[in-house]
Hints:
By secondary structure, the protein is mainly beta. Strand 8 and strand 9 (167-175) form a beta hairpin. The radius of gyration is 18 Å and the shape is globular. The chain has helices at residues 2-15, 24-27; strands spanning 52-59, 64-73, 79-88, 99-106, 111-115, 125-132, 145-148, 158-162, 167-175, 185-190. The strands form 2 sheets. A 5-stranded antiparallel beta sheet has the order 1-4-5-10-7, with no helix packed on it. The protein has a 5-stranded antiparallel beta sheet with strand order 2-3-6-9-8, with no helix packed on it. It has one domain.
Amino acid sequence: MKNLFVLYIVLLFSLIACNNEVEDEVLTPSINQPINFIDLFQDSTLLDTIKLFTAVKEVGASGGILQLEEQIEGGPFGSISISATLEIEPGTIPANETFMCSLTVDNVKASIQISPIEKHFAHPFKLNLKYTGVDLQKVNANILDFLCLNGYPVVYNCLSADFSTGTLEAKDVVVPCFSLLENFVTLGFVGEFD
């Protein structure tokens, strides 16, 4: 009987994880120091302009998948490849609504912006993000992590760095849904030496 009660409590918490009945102060963390995402190029002053790359798709109750594949010239390997996939489960977005969802990356930092992120979504989104050809000279593998810009902890299945190919990869990232003034979230790789 005790095990059944514990199972019931665990299931109850998992069902309301992203529900808007959870108090905002629990879901809106703050951080005392700014997050500094890993630089794609060690000397970003050589870049002429900041370029944005975006994938956009209308998504409704049936869910969907957004994919972004980009190539940036330069770096120690000749170019940097960016591959991102965002999975939105069926039932995440209410039946009577549709949203223009987007993934946006730039040519400066190893980070991604996802929009919209709404507190009333039924499930968090799932993200896979991979950079290849990045200059990882200043990256410390012992402190490598994947975080939200505001410091909110991010759950992921696998995080890796391959220094021989300049690869950073985060797999099965659970994109948190929490109350924000903005309706987007920025996530990225951190772990550079000071």
